[in-house]
Amino acid sequence: MNMLIYGLLTGILFGFLLQKARVVRYDKQIGALRFQDMTIVKFMLSAIIVGMVGIHFFDLFGLVQLLYKPLVLGENITGGLLFGLGWGLLGYCPGTQGGALGEGRWDAIWGILGMIIGAGLFAETYPFLKNNVLNWGNYGYLTIPQLIGVNRWLVIGVFGAGAIALFRWFEKKGL
Amino acid sequence: MEMEKRDEGSWSPYIAGGMSGLVIIVSVLWTGQFFGASTSFVRSAGMLGKFFEPERVSQLEYFVRYLPRFDWQLMFVIGIFVGSLIASVWSGSFKWQGVPDMWAERFGTNPVKRGIVAFIGGIIAIFGARLAGGCPSGHGLSGMIQLAVSGLVALVFFFVGGIIMTRIVYFGGKK
Predict the structure, then answer these.
(1) A9/B148 Cβ within 8 A
(2) Which of A43, A147, A168, B33 is the Cys-Cys partner for B13 at CB 3.0 to 4.6 Å?
């Protein structure tokens, strides 16, 4: 029961911030994909940098439990591409479209309905997919530092520097 | 820098994004939960399916793996709706709108046309997200924060798919 309340509270905080930054809107999401407005990329990368530093810091003391998905190229690539194609049509993400509805963009209802139907379709086809597409190129639980064989703080540093360079470029270009 | 239209009550995406990163850290420290959204649509589909065909739902392997019930993440997704509603009503940016501005500029203000495309987009997007093992929240934010290779691969292909689709949808449009 407590977990449900924590989930709701965390969602409220996140939804509040998403709306404040205006990232839930179709125009912002598609604007990024058309290279016209990089608001969502700024938001995502900022959240990632802060989260990255914090999570790996607390991981040093064993205070957090890492929980990420294994690298399965067949799934990550085909699924990623398919998601992108659908995203380009819908203009909302699974997590943020509730936020779009929250600020009155009611076309998000169609996306939510489509996603419930689509999830049902996935469940129906899962036994078939499992034996075919899924599991191709399975490399298990792999992190970027493990892949290239360097310290994770080096990766975090390079990622952070790259993101800041990108931000400066966005601001210079007025994106 | 170009002059931008003032958007009253909006926050910088860097600040709001960074604060979201802090929310993720607190969430992981406190409840062990990383952000994610797409599994919630599986659980919702299962709950809805139980109304019509309870037998079928109980047999499908995917609904056994992701039981059709409320959990942290589903409440989180509902919370995003609530948080966005609070933020938008509070700051006066709530707007009842069924056709996004960018869409209307290109395809007109017919909400049915927009609705059909959004619905189809939703089906494709969630199917892809489940195939990939996550969406921009689960892979994009949580995966990248943990430096997971799967998160990076999925995030890159989310954008590749999205860019391809918006090129098709807005083919020949202004820049």
Answers:
(1) no
(2) A43
Q: What is the ipTM score, two decimals?
A: 0.96
Tokens of B21: 């990163």
**Which of B123, B124, B118, B156 is closest to B139 using CA atoms?**
B156
Give the residue from B78, B151, B91, B82 showing the smallest Cα distance to A69: B151
Q: CB neighbours (10 Å) of residue B107?
A: 15
Two tokens at A30? Answer: 């598609």
Residues in chain A within 8 Å Cβ distance of B152: 144
- Is residue B133 within 8 A of residue A71, CB to CB? The reply is no
3-state SS assignment for residue A90: helix
pLDDT for A128-162, tens place per residue? 998 877 788 999 999 999 999 999 999 999 999 99
pLDDT for residue B175 = 47
Read off the tokens for A153: 């703080």
Query: Taking a C-beta distance cutoff of 8 angstroms, is the pair B31, B72 a contact?
Result: yes
Encode pLDDT of A112-133 as tens digits: 999 999 999 999 999 999 887 7
User: In whole angstroms, how far apart are CA A95 and each of A18, A23, A90, B70, B129?
Assistant: 10, 11, 13, 16, 11
Collect all residues of chain B within an 8 Å Cβ-Cβ radius of residue A157. none
- Yes or no, beta carbons of A83 and B117 under 8 Å apart: no
Q: Are B21 and B28 in contact (CB under 8 A)?
A: no
B112 touches chain A (CB under 8 A): no
**CA torsion sign, A3 to A5 to A6 to A7?**
positive
Alpha-carbon Rg for chain B in angstroms: 19
**Which chain B residue has its CA at the smallest distance from A121's CA?**
B127
| A56 vs A64: CA distance, rounded Å | 8
Query: Both tokens of residue B94?
Result: 């709530």
